[in-house]
Amino acid sequence: MKQFKLDDMQRGWFVGDFSPAAFVTQGAEVAIKSYRAGEREARHHHRIATEITVIQSGAVEMNGQRFDSGAIIVIEAGESTDFHALQDSVTVVVKVPGARDDKYAGEA
Asked: Is residue 12 one of the residues assigned to a domain?
C-alpha cells in the first residue's frame, strides 16, 4: 500500500502522467480542487481531453451559468469554459484521456 497527501500534489491533481502523482497513467487525470469565493480560472479549452467537473460543495459559475453542489458539468474536447467560485467550493475534476500540455487559453 502506498500513501500520499493531497497537499503534496500540484493544485490538487493526483492521478495522471505527471509528478508528483499518487497514480501515474496516461488514461486520465483526476484532481480535487478547493477554491475560495471570488477565485477565477481564465477561459480555456482542451483539444484532446473531455473535462468532467463535479461540484462537491459550494457554488460556481462556468460559461455564465451557476452550478451548485451535486452538479456534474461535461466540457467536451473543443469546447471552452471559464470558472468563477461564487462561494468557497470544492470540485472533483476528471480529464479523459490524460493529455499532457492540452490546455489552451481562450476560445477553441
From this structure: no
Measured in whole angstroms, how far is the alpha carbon of residue 30 from the centre of its chain?
A: 7
Question: Cα–Cα distance between 106 and 92 in angstroms, integer?
Answer: 22
Evaluate whether residue 91 is within a structural domain: yes
Range of 47's domain? 27-99
97 is written with which cell numbers? 484521456
**In the predicted structure, residue 55 carries a pLDDT above the cut 90:** yes
d(CA 93, CA 12): 9
Mean pLDDT of the chain: 96
At 80-95, the pLDDT tens digits run 999 999 999 999 999 9
Domain count, the chain: 1
Rounded to whole angstroms, the Cα distance separating 108 from 34 reads: 26
